[in-house]
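2024-03-11 09:14:02 INFO worker-7 job=invfold-0412 stage=load source=structure_tokens
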């Protein structure tokens, strides 16, 4: 004789593969739905979630967070997510409105607002000038105060590439662990232990990079895109300027002349482009300057996503700087 499910005991329901629909109860093995917007942040979130689950990476490959077009699959992931981690609209510019409309209340975590961050003011470009900041012919001489994050919105005057300072990465990992523990208290001990382990690895990374770059700290260089201030500040580097060239767009002849003149005047040992700049554009900009060419990538466009990606990103940036800036005998 068949018995109705309503009369089966709880143990019988479990054995037959059914789970009671209790509010707040997730099925065994059901992963917490978490989304991270860009690779460096995804790497930190993955490190904190180790042995619990895998976050989804929203912006993949070489797509720019400033102009990213959200796909339907990404929109669905944002709707389902229990937590969504992003830096802030200064980086993921194109995602501000989608995040506001798709992400559930209380699920969006702005890491630029994490407590204890070292926040640096953005350097202002002056109209019709080649460098992104004005430092005179002798290089960058401005002084600045570092501001500790207090959890409030920082506004548009803050340089947003905060993850390029490993100490900021530590603070973000702590924020990530706290938010994950808030929505998944059962795994809070694992999240906190993972964050502590990540902090130790980041301290070791800081010492490693400082040792690698110590001999080239005073060498002047120019970047195409002024995105590296946190890295430069943490490791005592000597940037001379930025030329703010748009990827894939050939500057006009007059601007090329100004750029070359500026690179020579700053006596830059190296000019660092980014992967999205075409080789022809880079060659045109640098022609006749005598500077060597390097490549820096703050997002790690071609690196494999995962918990180790952040460390690969920082080590590659350090190696690229040392290799280009070091005297020939030391390379």
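2024-03-11 09:14:09 INFO worker-7 stage=emit residues=331
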């Amino acid at each position: 004789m068949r018995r109705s499910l309503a009369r089966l005991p709880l143990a019988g329901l479990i054995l037959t593969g059914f789970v009671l629909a209790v509010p707040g109860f997730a099925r065994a093995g059901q992963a917490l739905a978490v989304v991270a917007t860009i690779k460096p942040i995804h790497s930190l979130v993955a490190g904190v979630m180790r042995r619990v689950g895998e976050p989804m990476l929203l912006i993949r490959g070489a797509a720019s967070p400033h102009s990213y077009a959200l796909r339907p699959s990404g929109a669905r992931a944002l709707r389902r997510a229990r937590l969504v981690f992003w830096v802030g609209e200064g980086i993921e510019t194109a995602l501000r409105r989608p995040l506001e409309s798709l992400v559930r209340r209380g699920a969006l975590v702005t890491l630029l607002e994490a407590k204890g961050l070292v926040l640096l003011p953005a350097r202002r470009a002056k109209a019709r000038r080649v460098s992104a900041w004005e430092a005179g012919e002798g290089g960058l001489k401005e002084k600045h105060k570092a501001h500790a994050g207090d959890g409030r919105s920082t506004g548009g005057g803050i340089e947003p590439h905060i993850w390029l300072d490993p100490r900021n990465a530590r603070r973000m990992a702590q924020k990530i662990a706290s938010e994950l523990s808030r929505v998944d208290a059962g795994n809070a001990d694992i999240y906190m232990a993972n964050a502590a382990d990540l902090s130790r690895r980041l301290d070791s990374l800081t010492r490693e990079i400082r040792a690698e770059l110590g001999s080239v700290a005073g060498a002047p260089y120019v970047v195409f895109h002024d995105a590296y201030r946190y890295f430069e500040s943490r490791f005592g580097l000597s940037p001379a300027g930025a030329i703010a060239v748009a990827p894939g767009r050939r500057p006009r002849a007059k601007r090329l002349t100004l750029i070359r003149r500026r690179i020579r005047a700053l006596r830059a040992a190296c000019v660092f482009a980014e992967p999205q700049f075409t080789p022809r554009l880079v060659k045109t900009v640098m022609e006749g300057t005598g500077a060597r060419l390097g490549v820096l990538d703050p997002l790690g466009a071609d690196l494999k996503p995962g918990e180790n990606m952040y460390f690969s990103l920082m080590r590659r940036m350090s190696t690229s700087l040392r290799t280009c800036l070091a005297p020939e005998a030391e390379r």
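2024-03-11 09:14:09 INFO worker-7 stage=report msg="The longest strand covers residues 238-242."
2024-03-11 09:14:10 INFO worker-7 job finished
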